[in-house]
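Researcher: I'm preparing a figure for a lab meeting and need a structural model of a single chain. I don't have an experimental structure, so a prediction will have to do for now. The sequence is pasted below. Please return the structure as tokens so I can convert it later.
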Amino acid sequence: MAASFGQCNIRCARADFVVDVNFTVPEKGVLGIFGHSGSGKTTLLRCLAGLEKKVEGTIKIAGVTWLSADKKLSPQQRNIAYVFQDGRLFPHLTVSDNLHYGARRSPGITGGEATKLMRIDRDNLVGMLNIGKLLDRYPHQLSGGEKQRVAIGRALLSNPQLLLLDEPLASLDKKHKQEILPYLEVLHEELNIPMIYVSHDLDEMLRFCDFLLVMEHGKLRFSGDIHDALIHQESPLAIIDNAVALLEGTVLTHEKSFELSIVQTVNGNYFQVPGLLATGKHVRLVVFASDVSVTKNKADDTSILNIIEGKVSAVLEKKDGRVLLQINCKQDILLSLISAKSFQLLQLAIGVDIYIQVKAVVTRRA
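Model: Understood. Here is the structure written out token by token.
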């Protein structure tokens, strides 16, 4: 994991289960808290925010102790911003006044890592969230996606040390989710504020989370880099029911006549992806295992554009007549979901050299 911004060892007893976790908050990037409903995600976030009463353990963020055996800072003292599912804008205030309320709450912080705090420019943030045309409107005049963008803007203008987002897209329909996700990606790229993002939707995590805590019944099942969370043998996400891998890369050039971009991964593999993406831009490639086939010999007469040499590095799961393979392609790790019959006919095993054919690649942060 990246450099540590904070360390948390939290225990919180609820009526139906106990949240008991120990994890690191990275200094940069988005830490996702993932799990099914009832796994303890929101309870953990509330513990961090100081909203839960019966919390034990230690929380130390940016050099300041928020919780210990003899100390518990109030939510106001923790210099956080919390975005709820429903936004919770003040209905009697315009968008502009809601944003101003957030700016007025910006604290004067001393000690710890306060010198690293970045004061966010209001006009720049309004532009990033594309809410300039909404400033004179009231919350009842906004769509669900617009409300959440304003709520995020209000939270950020308080200049928090830590931004907590509690399933901010859960109340939105698919259309409005797709509307707001690109803005969250922009914030991830442009702002240097640690964020913790709670969701039970894996696709949201794939979009912009850098690290992942996977929770189940109040306990951590996995903690680490999101890439490892998807492909590591010890991760509960590296299974047939999820079966997706992420690669990081840079757009090198285009084939304009075919409307394709060439992306080079950090480990030197090349992918042709749809669309003319900005040259030099960092992109994340999302590759579903169901879109990756395996062959012993490189095909020359195929419609598949992305054919890469690799080696079977693990057999992650066998289930319902299917086999999930982990493939190492020059340290780029991908997954392939094939039939059990194909697995046997090709005589596949760990260490066998193969070629993968990637039928589709989804790009993020373009």
